Amino acid sequence: ESLKQINIKFFKDLERYPNIRKLHDAKNHNNDQIFLAWMEAGRLQGLFREDANFEILLFILRRDLHTIFTVNMKEEKNELSKYTPDELGRMLILFYLRGISTRRGQEIIEEYLEKNRITK
After folding, report:
1. 3 state DSSP class of 48
2. pTM here?
């Protein structure tokens, strides 16, 4: 899903509705479990490094994605304001995936980017 499709105000409004926030948190927990299983499958296939700690990666990734969203909610401009959430998110994910990938995994990433003409 593209970050362009997510309305930033949703996250601000979410704080006003605790019951909906609980549902959102439960969905995030479920997504986290899917993410961790996906990462472990990649490790078993030799695509991700053996020494990668996916729980730490998930924690840092969530924090950084939160930063991307909150940067665009603020009224004042800053050094990241010139980029869209989609651009920032794509670069962040590529950064992390490349960092935890084996050489084989990195080759697959690069082939995918070239095949789909995605800018790096």
Report:
1. strand
2. 0.73
